[in-house]
């Protein structure tokens, strides 16, 4: 069954040429932390840095990492148990077999897209890496807000199409595209799956249940 994700952009009073987007859960009306917004019109040069997703307390930290395309990501294990990190996602399929402490070789993320992480030992572990090839993007804090400056908007024309993502989207392997009429403040409501225990939705496990 195909489930559609709905997004509603509601224009609010303009605040100059800056852009402020608030991501909201359409069911509860609550702001969404860790939502990602991308301006796809501006392409970025490939990244060269090495980032980290740490295994700590049998969870991925951070739960959502935004990484420029071309980045390498290390997966150090800070737990006193083994982990077995993997991804089946199209932008990067990989497997770091059973290991403890540091893993010797970071993973190179050379294609843009959404990479979903799991652990073959601890089924509850889930994380995401948003591999971005866009120059301007943002990740929301607890207030659900992502802001772009006038300088970041210079290369864009209106109506402006933005790409939006959140871990609880009904298909977390894709972005939701939303058209905004102009700069100012906008709220985008997302139709999300309910959070499971711990406030996270384990879509990796859900794919193989029922």
Explained architecture:
The chain has two domains: 7-39 and 137-197, Sandwich (Immunoglobulin-like); 50-132, Cupredoxins -  blue copper proteins (Immunoglobulin-like). It has two helices and 18 strands. With 210 residues, it is mainly β. The longest helix is centred in the last third of the chain and has 4 residues, at 150-153. The two termini are 13 Å apart.
Largest beta-sheet characterization = 5 strands, mixed
Kindly state the percentage of residues in helix: under 10%
Overall body shape: globular
Fold-level CATH name of the largest domain: Immunoglobulin-like
- List the strand order in the largest sheet: 7-13-12-9-10
Q: What radius of gyration results from the CA coordinates?
A: 18 Å
Number of alpha- plus pi-helical segments: 2
Strand count: 18
- The proportion of residues in beta strands is 35-45%
Q: Could you provide a short overview of the structure?
A:
This protein is mainly beta and 210 residues long.
List the helices and strands and how they pair.
Blueprint (H helix, E strand, L loop, with lengths): L6 E5 L7 E7 L10 E8 L6 E3 L1 E3 L2 E3 L2 E5 L3 E3 L8 E5 L6 E6 L7 E2 L4 E7 L6 E7 L1 E6 L5 E4 L1 H4 L6 E6 L10 E5 L3 E7 L12 H4 L4
Parallel strand pairs: 2-18, 4-8, 7-13
Antiparallel strand pairs: 1-18, 2-15, 3-14, 3-16, 5-6, 8-11, 9-10, 9-12, 12-13, 16-17
